[in-house]
Design brief:
Strand order of the largest sheet of chain B: 10-9-6-13
Oligomer: heterodimer
Radius of gyration of chain B: 22 Å
Mean pLDDT of chain A: 96
Largest interface: A-B, 89 and 98 residues
Strand order of the largest sheet of chain A: 2-1-3-7-11
Distance between the termini of chain A: 51 Å
Number of strands of chain B: 16
Strand content of chain A: 5-15%
Helix content of chain A: 25-40%
Structural class of chain B: alpha+beta
Helix content of chain B: 25-40%
Number of helices of chain B: 18
Distance between the termini of chain B: 53 Å
Mean pLDDT of chain B: 92
Shape of chain B: globular
Number of strands of chain A: 13
Radius of gyration of chain A: 21 Å
Low-confidence stretches of chain B: 515-531
Amino acid sequence: MTNVIWLQGGACSGNTMSFLNAEEPTVCDLIADFGIKVLWHPSLGLELGDSLQAMLWDCVLGKIPLDILVFEGTVVNAPNGTGEWNRFAHRPMKDWVSDLAKIAKFVVAVGDCATWGGIPAMAPNPSESEGLQFLKRQKGGFLGTDYKSKAGLPVINIPGCPAHPDWITQILVAIATGRLDDITLDELNRPQTFFKTFTQTGCTRNIHFAYKATTAEFGQRKGCLFYDLGCRGPMTHSSCNRILWNRVSSKTRAGMPCLGCTEPEFPFYDLKPGTVFKTQTVMGVPKEIPPGMKKKEYALLTVVAKDAAPDWADEDIFTV
Amino acid sequence: MGIQTLDISPVGRVEGDLDVRVEIEDGQVVNAWTHAELFRGFEVILRGKDPQAGLIVTPRICGICGGSHLTCASWALDTAWETEVPRNAILARNLGQLVETIQSIPRYFYGLFAIDLTNKKYQHSRYYNEAVRRFAAFTGKHYEIGVTISAKPVEIYALLGGQWPHSSYMVPGGVMCAPTLTDITRAWSILEYFRTNWLEPIWLGCSLERYEQIQTYDDFMAWLHENRNHRQSDLGFYWRMGLDIGLDKFGGGVGKYVTWGYLPHEDRYQKPTIEGRNAAMIMKSGVYDSFSDTHTLMDHTFARENTTHSWYDEGKEDIHPFARTTNPIQKNDKDFNNAYSWSTAVRHVDYGRLEAGPLARQLVAGGKHGESWQHYDGFILDVFKRMGGPSVHVRQLARVHELVKLYRQAEHCLREFKLNDPWYIKPKEKDGRGWGATEAARGSLCHWVELEDGKIKNYQVIAPTTWNVGPRDAEQKRGPIEEALIGIPIADPTDPIEVGHVARSFDSCLVCTVHAHDAKTGEELARFRTA
């Protein structure tokens, strides 16, 4: 049996909702087929009030072994580092996190808020929010740079706003079935298997990216969203176009620019005026280009691509 | 026997963290306080940002009803920018809203509510063993089907917006997507799958057409007695067990109800304005006062907030959301005589405290007010009157009664799309004020936005649970959930399951509830004149 406690700090439940959409395995399969026991979850748990508090204390005191602590939402420190603005079971939530992180074998941060702070930590960050082991790209966060769980690992980060259900279930199953050695974490402690490729990998608009054929405005059936509408697909690490969402699609397939929500800087540019759904350019060239490319080569490539583009690249292609 | 005080922290299986204090005398609740215990400050975060930032930020207020927030955020900008929204886009927005709510019904019923029917308190009910077989968490036969099937409707949302939760596919001027034949065909078959695998065989035990014949309480009774399939369906079973364990005996509330109305008609709201909204909605807005049995239309100018018992130092007056100044209390100590919640007390300027949610929507649907073409359905109003008013049981019935209607509305959207017509008309960005509203699964939701110098000057949200979970107001009137807790029997103070029933019957969403202030600067919010 693998005991799991799932708690929410400064959260919206988006990751919980995403998790409930899981299929292969479903949430019920996790329990029936993989021996995962959810001791408590805010939306699913049976206990309330005193009975839950008793269980939490039993975990803290080591009477109940805690294999995995899943955390969703930010760690709220306001006001002035006390955490009183997010109280749970008669204590600041951050105190529970601190106690449970000391005894948990593994700690998994699910979603941007728990990984890097996400939207609540956006300027001016009124709730003094941070992620478990990061604040944006800066290592440390609530538990500190050197934090290791009982099993000797840092916090496993599953970012995304929300995280994809399969990213969550597969990590839980990997831990429950002793496969964790198969998982490699990147420099942001994200499982590489989901976050090595780009959102663009598998996007149905790739060919239009290659020919620099743009989607100039919304509601169209052609082009790539990178050049005008601010799509971050080429710069974002995720598997959104390899492991589709809700089994059917992805933002970029549906015509919505990728917001880069698996990266610590999300929401990019702090959503300053002029930065939403608009590609940021300098002298007509996108400010940000695919990682690893040099500006000069990028410019050269796009000139050639534009010249080489066949006529159909500018026509409606996803037609009725 | 003196008065016993119970502090329940947390009441689980509501959205976010809800804490409740109840005072019990002779096994009954005689006083109650609900308090929201999380503050994130979304409205503060939005200030000074790009006009469209709300499209990205507000869905993240709540992962359960992000599509509802997106709906409000986009209509608010449409009214501020005076856009034109093409017919297809209205349908595509409505469809997103609809499938999100359809998703929510089984997920809520099985995941959050019905589990409680397996509580040991009910082991002497003759329905208990069957309830455990069906509804036990994770292992119940129907729990598993219901929770799993709830992921299906939002696949349609993903066809439109790329994913659920948290897409931002609705934008001022329309939608980002331009679905193709494949998308529409898949959406139809997802709906059909949902209907043939759960909605008809497991939930109703009959066809949609048969269920739609139920117009009155007597019709419902006749349906129940008609055959075994109806009685043994989850709806029939729930209704019988609920009566057996007395869910019709408590959890009433304030007896007055509010809905903003929702689902703009695709031919009537292409040039959206705040003033023209009421007359353009398929589901009409309204306030139902059960004491005088009257229906009136609802308008955003009727909304007021009071912070007497909230952790804000903003006087004791009722103020319109946009006339609020921000003067936070840093130290949010629980003081049940003074401030004890991050939620404000929301009031109607004439009717006072109102309950929001499916029960409110369905009681308003039974009114003859509004436009003649708007949706009318007298069923829940009739049940309400025949059952002697509100209770946990009637509130549940209202919630699940919407399933079939919303399914039909979703079919309507799919039928009405004209795939070669526009989905988006690029608007001109401008300064101004806008208001957008909808009905989330759990009730009335609206956004006010004020744009100045090409950025957000002020953004305000009133969520359904703000109406429901608010603390006392300046007149010391309890909020709807506080009121609904009064008089409930508590069988076992160590496991106050009845408090859970009541709180969950409102399908509370605490994460939506909490308003914002700028603690760092204590800046005053912009004033928003409602005259």
